[in-house]
Amino acid sequence: MRPALPALVALLAACEPPPAATSVPVDPGDGTPVDLGLEPARLRRRMDIEQLDRSIGSSTGRRWMSGSTALFVSNAATLGVPDYFQTTHEDLEISPLFLKFLDDAARAVCSDLVPEDAAAAAADRIFFVHAEPEATLPADRSSIDENLRYLVLRYHGRRMEAEAPELGAWRDLFADARAATDDPEVAWLTVCVALVNHPDFYTY
Amino acid sequence: MTNRRTFLRDLLVTGGALGALGSATGLSRLVAAGGEAAVRRHYVFAYFSGGWDILLSLDPRDPASTTAEENRITPDYDALSNPPTTEVRTFAGIELGPHIGMLSDHAASLAIVRGMSMETLTHEVGRRRFLTGKAPSGLTARGSSASTWIASRIGGGDPVPNLSTGSVETYNSDQPSYASALTVRGGADLVRVFTPGTSALEPTQADILQAFLASEAACDRARHAAALREAEAARLRLGDMLESNLAGLFDIGRLDASVRERFGVTNTTYTTPEAQTLIAYQALTNGVSRCISLAATAESLDTHFNDWGQNQGTRQQRGFDAIARLVTALQGTPYAPAGFTPDGSSWLDHTTIVGFSEFSRTPLRNDRGGRDHWLGNSCFLIGGNVRPGVIGRSSDYGMEPQPIDLETGAYDPEGEVVRPEHVLRTLLVDAGITADEADLRVDPIPALVAI
To answer: Spelled out in words, what is the top-level CATH class assigned to the domain B41-192+250-430?
Structure first.
C-alpha cells in the first residue's frame, strides 16, 4: 500500500486547483495623523527618592547636601523609603510632604548652581549653555528661548519646537521673574527652581 | 473667606474638574464634608507595632489558676524582668495584666474587645487588615484606611484632615486626595512641612513660581493625567499648610516645659511615643487634624526570643502610659474649638482613641523563652461615645477567639467572632458613615459605641 500513496495525493491535487489570489481594495487614508487623545499611553508615576536624588544630580550636577550629609539619604525614612525591616514598599504618592522636601532641595541646589554656572567658563557650563546670565528680553529672546528649550530637554526630557506654545509659558516665567528683580541671576534661579518643582521633572 | 480648598471645592461643584480629587462618589463626599462641619468628632488610631502580648495587659490570666496542661496558657509573669506585679489586678471591674501601666487609671472609661480573630500570622497582613478592615491581597492593602474614610467625611475643613505621625501606614484607594494622610515621622517633620522654604527665593519670585505651576496644572495635558492632578492637589494642600503658620505647635523643643512634662517628653527626640501623643494633642486641640494615626511604640513588640521577658512588657507599657497621658490631657481640656459654644464637655468626650496591634502572641512560650505570632487579638477604645467595659472573650483553653452577640458584647455560641472590620465599621458609623460605603460587609458593634 505504501507505494500507492504518492499517486493518490497527486490525483487529489489534480482534482482541486489551488484558489487563485484575489486583490482586495484597501484605503490607506490620506496620511492624516490619528488623534490619540491627551491621555498618556500609560499612567505617569512619581520617581522614588533614589531616582529623584540621582535625577537632581544628573540635571544640576549637584546633590542636595548639608555639609557632607546627603539630605535625601538622611531623610529617607521620613520620605517613605523602605527600610526592609518595618516597611518593604515605597509609597510613591505625591504628598505635600514630598513636595516640601522637593522644593527645599530645588532651592538649595539651584541657589548653588546658578551663580556657580554663571561664573564658569562657557565650555564648562551646564545651565547657561545658550544664553548669558545677563541676557534680557526682548533683545536676547532668541538665545533665551534656545536656553529654555535646552533646559526643558535637560530637566524634563521634553523636546520643544522653537515656536511651541509651551515655550511661551517658560519665557513668560523668566520675563515675570526678571521684571520683579534687578538681578538677572535671580530670574534664572526662579526658572531653575521651577524646573525641579515641575511635575514633569519628578514623574515619568 | 475663600481659601484654596474651598475654591477647589467650588470648582468641583461646578464640574470644572470632576476628576481632580477623585471619583464622583468622592466628590459627593467632599461636598457632604462641608455640610457636616458641625460634626464634632475626632479620632486617634494608636498602633502598637510588632504584635503585642495581650496576656500582659488587655487579656490577662491568673497565674495561680492557669497552667499549660489545663489551659494551654502560661502567663509566666514571674519570668518578666521587673514586672510591676505578677498578679492580675481589677480596675473598675476590668481584669488587667501587670503591664497595663497608667491606662489602668482610666479603666472606668476603657472598653476592651477580647477574643478577636486576625485570621493571619503575618505582620503586614494583620496591620493592614486593622487599618482598612479588609484582608490584603497578598501583602497589598485593599481599600482605604478607616482614618482616610473618616477624614474624607468630617475633616474637609481642617488644615491636615488626616495626620499620621510615627509613619503609621495609611491608605487611600478611593477617597478624595485631601483625605490622604500627611505621613511624618514626628514633630520635626511637621515643623519642616509647615515652615516656608529657604530664603533662596524672594516672596515675589516664589509667588511667580507658584502662579507658573498653577498655570501648567491647568493645561490640557496636566488635567488629563491622574498623577499630574494629584501633584496639583498636593501643591495646593502644601500652600494651605504653609499659609497656616502652624510650625510652632509642633516644635516640641520650644513648647512650654510644663506641656512637655505633662506628656512625659524628656528630650527633643520627636519620635518617641510620648512625643507622638503630644503631637496628637496639639493637632487635635488646635484644630489642625480631625483624624490622627500615631505610633504608640518606639520599638517593636515582636519578641520571639528571650527578649520577651526583657522587652515585651516594658515596651507596651510605655505605649499605654503615653496613651494614658493623652487621655488625661484631653480630659482636662475643655472642648472649645472655633465656632463651638462650650458646653462643659472635654476634648475626650469628642475624641475616640483606638489602640491596636496586628495580632497577639502565643499563649504558650516557645522553647527559646519568647512567644510567637498568635491570630487571636484584643484592642482597646476610650473616649468619645465608647461604652466602657469588656466586649467578648478569648477561651480559657488556648485563648481561642470566641463568638459574641454584637448587641450585648457577651459570649454567644450563635454569634459572630469579632474581626477588625467590626471595630472599624463601628467607628465609621460613629463618624456618620452609617451605610457600609467602605464595603466592610459586617455589622457594627452596638455594645462598643453608643451609636
So the answer is: alpha beta
